[in-house]
Amino acid sequence: MNMGIHPLTLSLFVALAAIGGATGFRSANPLMALAGVLLGLFMVLALRVARQWQRAVVLRLGKFHGLKGPGLFGIFPFLDTVPYWIDMRVITTPFTAEQTLTKDSVPVDVDAVLFWRTIDPMKAALEVENYREATSWSSQTALRDVIGETDLAEMLVGRRKIDARLCQMIDERTEAWGIKALSVEIRDVKIPVALQNAMSMQAQAERERQARLILGESESQVASKFKEAAKAYVENPVALHLRAMNILLEGMRQNSTVVIVPSSAVETMGLGAMAGVTSLAKEFSSPRIPVKEEK
């Protein structure tokens, strides 16, 4: 990446050209003006300014001469060139893998982002033609390799593990170019719609199975408690009778109509007489309509 003329060098050129022109005008010597213009042009070509996050790769007669920056530095015009200005900051590169088969033959689309930085500007400039593009393509191929070695369930659940593995693979491939892969984050994993519906049905069936297991376990615990209560009632029939009366009273409070089916359990609890008394009480408490006899 070539940098344009810096405002500082342009200002020096204008200042030296103006000084040379003024001096030549006063002394009536045109060579002074020409010398001022040539000196200003030399300063424009010789002086460079690199920003704090930049490193300039200097080539002298086509060979690597050194790294310059940050700040002001000088080169020899026509002998030295600055073909690359390397950015030393952390750079983000998004990359994707479309319609890539997982280990269990499921096509997925994966979006990820790579955080990386240049640690060796000389290698980044000399060992690869375009280190940014090479890093992007290397990340994409590494992502496809990881997807092909991973099951879909592992990819959906274990993203952190996949991120670390992918970062390590990219770092090994870009180390020769002076690039350090800092981290990789998978942003999204897209799967076919039909598979999404199947996974949703599977999740619902699993939740229903867990709900039935919990219900069965609850009924087992309740039956166990009833068993313990039955042992207490066997030893104390009066307590069983009081419990039966309490059940009947609660039923009458909740519903005005109570139906008791005759059975051995009812006879054992002695509820037959109680039911008759209840029916008789309702019969006497309900208002009666007098019926007139026809003559």
Describe the 3D structure:
- This protein has 295 residues and is of the alpha+beta class.
- The protein has four domains: 7-86, no CATH class; 91-191, Band 7 domain (Tetrahydropterin Synthase, Chain A, 2-Layer Sandwich); 193-234; 236-274, no CATH class.
- Helices cover 56% and strands 22% of the residues.
- It contains ten helices and eight strands.
- It has helices spanning 7-27, 30-46, 121-126, 131-148, 152-157, 159-174, 193-235, 237-254, 264-269, 272-285; strands at residues 47-50, 54-60, 63-68, 71-74, 80-87, 91-101, 107-118, 179-190.
- A three-stranded antiparallel beta sheet has the order 3-2-5. It has a three-stranded antiparallel beta sheet with strand order 6-7-8, covered by helices on one side.
- Strand 2 and strand 3 (63-68) form a beta hairpin.
- The radius of gyration is 46 Å and the shape is elongated.
- The N and C termini lie far apart (125 Å).
- 17% of the residues are buried.
- Residues 288-295 have low confidence and may be disordered.
Give a topology summary.
Layout: H1 7-27, H2 30-46, E1 47-50, E2 54-60, E3 63-68, E4 71-74, E5 80-87, E6 91-101, E7 107-118, H3 121-126, H4 131-148, H5 152-157, H6 159-174, E8 179-190, H7 193-235, H8 237-254, H9 264-269, H10 272-285
Antiparallel strand pairs: 1-4, 2-3, 2-5, 6-7, 7-8
CATH topology term of the largest domain: Tetrahydropterin Synthase, Chain A
**Number of spatially distinct domains:** 4
Give, in spatial order, the strands making up the sheet with the most strands: 3-2-5
Q: What is the rounded Rg?
A: 46 Å
What's the total helix number? 10
The proportion of residues in beta strands is: 15-25%
